[in-house]
């Protein structure tokens, strides 16, 4: 087959996309479940809304009251009549009020205990003792250019007694100055100063102590019996505006050094008022708040203070007979209203924060899964670069996320949630779109912190639920507290969970208000006035920052450095540098002990490096790997200087006991770990710098199968085949062939998910994957473990065939396999090669003896020993158990015919149960080399 060359970016992207799509198709149900979550939540919200409507919005308490009024024609039937007169006070708010009542205008005055008293500086105020009796006066300050005018004017302000001298009650009351400490309402349909049971005050220039005037107002059902309490009014002149201002300021607890509340009821600046001009400034306190922090309109009370001063001026000009009476305040008529609380809008921010954030753990766990199962790295080893990986993953997760929130929008609107319906869809779409982008970038960034799916998932869910709850109970509280500095709100919004929460909160507020007033919610024109613009900018900026950081960290960590390397103390030596003595000593010993064949290979490598020829696919020059010391153990030398050259077309077998460093070596060559020192050249490319290009011509069969449980064998091969730039019929053919080669073709095995494969089948699939697309270099880490003999034979044929244009490095524990497959073998013990050569050579070199076994009855043992002595004086007994003995006979002094003759002779002398003469096997060589190698290393 022609070499298709390395795959292009789009080919690799396409391969990954197709794999992901197949993967998602398999996970269809979990995807549907994911999409259904918003659906369930919307249904849940609708259910809450229905419950809330029936219990609260439509309850009798939240609509105008009705009663059944008997018919006037006396037929015993009754007519349901609604109106304020049939309502309980709580219902009155909702009634239509075609002709609102008239209420006397009230002046806002401070509570008796907070009225101004004499502090250190202002001597003309009363002594603090009045607070104990509750008889402190209501202070009103005056200033202006003409004190004479001012004092005579304020003499007209208050009456000296309570008089109701009129048939018209309100007109009579208007001669008096009524004051209340109760805060005003937003409307004047019912003044709380009159409707509540807080005392009303009549402010007079003189007061008889404890004078009270009973007083009743309105008609049933709005009849209020009140007692008017006399409050002394105190008018004081101040020379300058600034003095008035200072004194008003002292009303605040923090405004005066004593830390007392010291409130002035009202203040007037008469400016340049004279006989011809009336010009006045009125000070009033607008800080009154209701419990929810809203500011009711205190303006409804300001009118009275304006009237007071105007009336005083008029009397000053015209004499006491002329009056400007302010009889009553009256609201405009109103129609019936209903409570329309949209509960979904109120709890929406919490729920939808959860819904959107829920994608975080989903994406995170799938990214970390690929990392944990090393699928990411194995894809990379087969040529899937970082570029296509991130791009396709990004696009892919973005698609899922968009699908998800669009479903949310559609469900929510379809079910009728005001949260979605009232706000402009384009704003909503943009908001969610930007946020999911930020979220995906964050996942990419965060995924580098985790290596285990479990920890990642737990952490992500804590983030999801924590953000929602903190948003509701902390962040929202702070947003609504108008005294909390906005700058800090901005800082909090930098936390992505809160910026999402804030956005949803704004939507909910607009939807809630819109619903209450029967209008639309947020429109683009409200965009900049609603803190939404701020959120958008935060999200966009964070999105780019997160992307850049994720890219940076990925680049750095894939190049093997610690992502926080710049934070590390540059003076702290790295472990390999810290113990140079050990390393040097180690390599010296190795050189001393090195066998001639190993030295020869080393020289060959040095020669090759000088020639810089590429005839050898793999060249390793003195590769070393030292794992830094951990938990007080000394640093571990996994590979101590390995030199090796493998030409194309050769299969190099690496034998060695467990823990000898074979896998460390393979990991270095496949780019999983960086060599501590030394160099590896694959196809003329350096493994430290050019790994990405090396990958395009490399195949790996790792020791542990790295497969996707839900993808089938065929799909695996198709994916990796595409990565290796196979296309169309070439691809199908290659896949079919390799399936047949590894015996996965028949019986529909190829189309079963790999998760259901037996260990042997997975193994075969891994080998097939490593060989697909004719890579130039293949590493196989124990390819045939766990295979039955028939499959193993099959596999060997496959590998043997593949070997023709490929350099293969293979580790194995099976000597049979090594002998069958490998052109050369190296025995690797404790981090270094003990010998190198083809199997025959090795056997010749290390075997050098026959093994003679004979079983007799135990009394003839001595005879056997004697026999061997005769045949070969230097024979060694290596094994002895009840009549069975094993000897090693040096080849050079033994001739096989002699042995046979001796045995024949012996058979005539005593009974020989069994005997045998064997050439050394590879296994014997292995055991011998391994034993000496280890012994040497133990003592080194
Ligand atoms: C102050 O007002 C009085 C009248 O109340 C007037 O007689 C007097 O001239 C005014 N003084 C000045 C300085 O304008
Ligand atoms: C009540 O008002 C009338 C005129 O409206 C007046 O004649 C009468 O003297 C007033 N009575 C008192 C007690 O002020
Ligand atoms: C206000 O001015 C008058 C005279 O102009 C003066 O006697 C009085 O002390 C001043 N009051 C204050 C508080 O400065
Ligand atoms: C204004 O009213 C508020 C609320 O009653 C009070 O706390 C504050 O001290 C008042 N300010 C002044 C200057 O009187």
From TrEMBL:
GO MF annotation list: ABC-type transporter activity; ATP binding; ATP hydrolysis activity; lipid transporter activity
Its signal peptide is: none
Q: How does it sit in the membrane?
A: Multi-pass membrane protein
The keyword Transmembrane helix is assigned to this record:
yes
Q: Which InterPro entries match?
A: AAA+_ATPase, ABC2_TM, ABC_transporter-like_ATP-bd, ABC_transporter-like_CS, ABCA, P-loop_NTPase
* Entry's localization field: Membrane
> Keyword Membrane on this protein?
yes
Which key words tag this protein in UniProt? ATP-binding, Membrane, Nucleotide-binding, Transmembrane, Transmembrane helix
- Occurrences of domain ABC transporter (ranges): 618-855
Q: What SMART domains does the record point to?
A: AAA
What superkingdom heads the lineage? Eukaryota
The regions listed as transmembrane in this protein's record are: 34-52, 346-369, 389-417, 429-451, 458-479, 535-553
- Its recorded name reads ABC transporter domain-containing protein
